[in-house]
TrEMBL record:
Keywords (A to Z) from UniProt: Acyltransferase, Membrane, Transferase, Transmembrane, Transmembrane helix
Domain Acyltransferase positions: 42-373
Keyword Transmembrane helix on entry: yes
GO annotation, biological process: polysaccharide biosynthetic process
Residue stretches spanning the membrane: 46-68, 80-100, 121-142, 177-199, 206-226, 290-307, 319-336, 356-377
InterPro entries xref list: Acyl_transf_3_dom, Acyltransferase_3
Any one annotated GO CC term: membrane
The protein's name: Putative acyltransferase
EC number: 2.3.1.-
Length: 391
């Protein structure tokens, strides 16, 4: 199984990717702030869950492969679906914050929107790309033979630098491999002004119908174009995957305006859907890997309100704190995995105690580096660039 990579985000939100803890700083206009009742911290907490899910998946095939966690835990093996959760979350939040900007898709509105999105995404993206350059240069110099030159080609660096790696310009992931989803997210942002203009023209009945039909159409793509896996990361299939889920998120946010979905107690229906998903795995259904994607819209609706246990859990302080730094976490996972390779020998061949210490070391390095990047790169650059765009 290939290792995919994360939202923005991931998609992205200003409380990194989607979590409107103060309407995501990354999305909201500097001049606008939501009322306290309109803050949906649960979406930020949900973003934390998605990011950790993807990191667990990547590390289970990388740094922690010797522990075989992916083979023993199905939930880790499906961690690539965290990206699908990101894409849907992103559409939900982007619609919440920016749909009103595109009653008409004007050039100034489009330019401002893309400027705000780049201000949110690009500083950390560029920082991690440059960090990878340092790691790749120093690795061989320090005698580490693990760097495959094919994964660090100078020409592909330029493709990645312009966030085009998921657009069909390469046949394999390069450099900071999880960043492919940021590339796909930018594709969705370019589509959004036209999507917002079109979806606003639909009446409520058509919006509800589209929200139901879109996941079914994606399931058809999963069974045909995607080859029975959602783990597609390059070219047309991934752009289709991202755009469909992003659009579904937009539709969900429109539905919230016309249907009192936040009053629904989602916990029991979601648990029943999870049980149905598990049953499909037991029965070895070919749709089993896709089933969680059908659950995500309901999880997002549940997390957007504190009126149910899922929303209250996702809004808890630990989830919100991790969610706020989830974009930095997502993009730092690969540099840390490569940069801390000196710990691999202990994971693979050390005693049980040494192995446990090495795993804890990896987690600590990732946590500390994420916190530092979030505080000293992501937050200040976002504020400065957004002020520049709004000027």
């Amino acid at each position: 199984m290939t290792r995919p990579a994360l939202f923005s985000g991931q998609t992205d939100v200003s409380v990194p990717m989607p979590g409107l803890a103060e309407i995501p700083d990354g999305y909201a206009d500097i001049r606008t702030r939501p009322a306290k009742s309109d803050r949906m911290e649960g979406l930020t907490g949900l973003r934390a869950l998605a990011a950790l899910w993807v990191v667990g998946f990547h590390y289970s095939f990388g740094a922690f492969a010797y522990l075989y966690p992916a083979g023993s835990l199905r939930v880790i093996r499906l961690g690539y679906l965290g990206v699908d959760l990101f894409f849907t979350l992103s559409g939900f939040v982007i619609w919440h914050v920016h749909a009103a900007d595109f009653h008409q898709p004007t050039v100034p509105a489009f330019r401002r929107f893309i400027g705000l999105r780049l201000a949110r995404l690009y500083p950390v993206y560029l920082f991690t790309m440059l960090l990878f350059v340092v790691i790749v240069v120093l690795g061989p110099a320090l005698g580490d033979p693990s760097f495959n030159p094919r994964n660090y080609e100078p020409g592909q660096f330029l493709v990645d630098l312009f966030m085009l790696q998921s657009w069909g310009l390469t046949d394999h992931l390069n450099w900071n491999y999880p960043a492919w989803s940021v590339s796909a997210e930018m594709f969705c942002y370019i589509l959004f002004p036209f999507l917002a203009f079109g979806l606003r023209k639909l009446n409520n009945g058509l919006v509800m119908s589209a929200a139901v039909a879109l996941p079914l159409a994606l399931a058809a793509c999963y069974s045909t174009i995607f080859g029975h896996t959602m783990n597609v990361t390059l070219g047309g299939p991934v752009l289709l995957r991202a755009a469909a889920e992003f659009t579904e998120g937009c539709l969900l946010r429109r539905i919230v305006d016309v249907v009192p979905v936040r009053r629904i107690r989602w916990t029991v229906p979601i648990l029943l859907m999870i049980v149905a998903t598990e049953a499909m795995f037991v029965l070895q259904s070919r749709l089993a890997d896709f089933m969680p994607v059908l659950v995500f819209p309901f999880v997002i609706l549940a997390a957007s309100s504190r009126a149910n246990p899922i929303g209250r859990l996702a809004s808890s302080k630990p989830f919100v704190l991790v969610g706020a730094a989830s974009y930095s976490l997502y993009l730092m996972q690969a540099p840390v995995e490569k940069g801390a390779r000196f710990l691999l020998a202990y994971v693979a061949h050390g005693t049980a105690l040494e192995c446990a210490a090495a795993v804890c070391g990896y987690i600590a390095i990732l946590g500390v580096s994420t916190a530092l990047v979030h505080r000293y790169v992501e937050n200040p650059s976002r504020r400065s660039l957004r002020q520049l765009v709004a000027a």
